[in-house]
Design a protein that fits this description.
2 domains; four-stranded antiparallel beta sheet; globular; 415 residues; alpha/beta; binds 4'-deoxy-4'-aminopyridoxal-5'-phosphate; 17 strands; Aspartate Aminotransferase, domain 2; Aspartate Aminotransferase, domain 1
């Protein structure tokens, strides 16, 4: 793995680290691939790819309860990953780490269990105008079922949350506040610690959607004091179909199970079934074993590079990208918050984002276009969608130059 031998004066050698990602070294439409769709999903380092094939080549087996050697190896690797996740998040214990399919499932799990158990008619749940649909719809479903109300924290023209409006929304009917740490559409980093503190004072619990935070910064659940937190493996250099729900032990223990099946039980009889301890209570059925293992490997990988180094380098890319793209005539950046992660959403004149995306693809540049699963936010800005370039630590300034050049070419063709 390149990362371990890359340090010069304690600064990572980003060009060397890039060699860990085989997918990046190819041509698309005859041009060098520039992958700027990292907010949708990240590429995978060799250590993660090898961990998955190693699992299938050497010790594929169903986990827990297996008396045989391969089952023991697989169980140990899977449970070691849970420890890695717990350490990475600074959770109190690995019992607070529930493996799920991803952020979407983490939110649905909490809405369906904690939500159903604790929300009643007249209660209020707060989200922001900037949420991904997966942090809106599960709460809408819960509100509809229980006769509760969904309240929305508005944003300003820069794409920042209006915290004073949030404080006004809080009251003794507020039960749950669910907010993203980082906006996937605009890159805004929300003041989640302040949000959590205020919610707790009002007696509400807080879910943090950390899907876009985990790849870019240190996330410490005890320091934040969040009650629940969810993220997806595939955005943090691991594979798809695996993610994590963190929850405080005392809350998880009181919650009813989400799905019924194998593994989540202590004993089953037709007179009545008793449930397993956390986290297994929430892990019915055979899980995504190789995904769980890959997640631990991916988190170790970014720890080895250093999350502070990653954040600093990606911030440089953000500043360079913002300056470079701003010099393109007619380009307007949507989302200019003071505190941003490495996402640039933009529009150029009246050109449809999709048309730009298609022309960029011809130049080998991969960006995302559309509403980014944030239709209420797009409505707030009176637009249908944006072009979004999102950077990871394996991206370079030269690639940003290539994006700008390709954009200029596309604008020329479309105008
Ligand atoms: N929340 C945010 C902020 C996201 O960016 C995403 C993915 N785009 C999700 C939730 C949903 O993640 P997943 O599809 O991996 O469950």
């Amino acid at each position: 793995m390149a990362v371990s031998s890359s340090s010069k004066n304690n600064l990572p050698d980003w060009a060397y680290i890039r060699t860990d990602f085989p997918i990046l070294h190819q041509k698309i439409n005859g041009k060098k691939l520039v992958y700027f769709d990292n907010a949708a999903t990240s590429q995978k380092p060799l250590s993660v790819i090898n961990a998955v094939s190693d699992y299938y080549e050497r010790y594929n087996s169903n986990i827990h309860r297996g008396a045989h050697y391969l089952a023991q190896l697989a169980t140990e690797a899977y449970e070691r990953s849970r420890q890695t996740v717990a350490q990475h998040l600074n959770a109190n214990s690995e019992a607070e780490i529930n493996f799920v399919r991803g952020t979407t499932e983490a939110i649905n799990l909490v809405a369906s269990t904690y939500g159903r158990q604790n929300i009643k008619s007249g209660d209020e749940i707060i989200v922001t105008e900037m949420e991904h649909h997966s942090n809106i719809v599960p709460w809408q479903l819960l509100c509809a079922e229980k006769g509760a109300t969904l309240k929305v924290i508005p944003v300003n023209d820069k794409g920042e949350l209006l915290v004073e409006e949030y404080l006004k929304l809080l009251n003794n009917k507020t039960r749950i506040v669910s907010v993203a740490y980082v906006s996937n559409a605009l890159g805004t980093i929300h003041p989640v610690k302040e949000i959590i503190e205020a919610a707790h004072q009002a007696g509400a619990v807080v879910f943090i959607d950390a899907a876009q935070a985990m790849p870019h910064m240190k996330v410490d659940v005890q320091e934040l004091d969040c009650d629940f937190l969810g993220f997806s493996g595939h955005k943090v250099y691991a594979t798809t179909g695996i993610g994590v729900l963190y929850g405080k032990r005392e809350l998880l223990e009181k919650m009813p199970p989400y799905m019924g099946g194998g593994e989540m039980i202590k004993s089953v009889s037709f007179k009545g079934t008793t449930y397993n301890e956390i986290p297994y209570k929430f892990e019915a059925g055979t899980p995504n074993i190789e995904g769980g293992i890959a997640l631990g490997v991916a988190l170790n990988y970014i720890q080895l590079i250093g999350l502070d180094q990653i954040a600093a380098y990606e911030h440089e890319l953000l500043l360079y990208g913002t300056e470079t793209l701003s010099s393109i005539e007619g380009l307007r950046i949507i989302g200019t918050a003071e505190n941003k992660s490495s996402v640039i959403s933009f529009l150029i004149n009246n050109i449809h984002p999709y048309d730009l995306g298609v022309l960029l693809n011809e130049q080998g540049v991969a960006i995302r276009t559309g509403h980014h699963c944030c239709q209420p936010l797009m409505d707030r800005f009176g637009i249908e969608g944006t072009c979004r370039a999102s950077f990871a630590f394996y991206n370079t300034r030269e690639e940003i130059d290539q994006l700008a050049e390709s954009l200029n070419r596309a604008v020329h063709l479309l105008s």
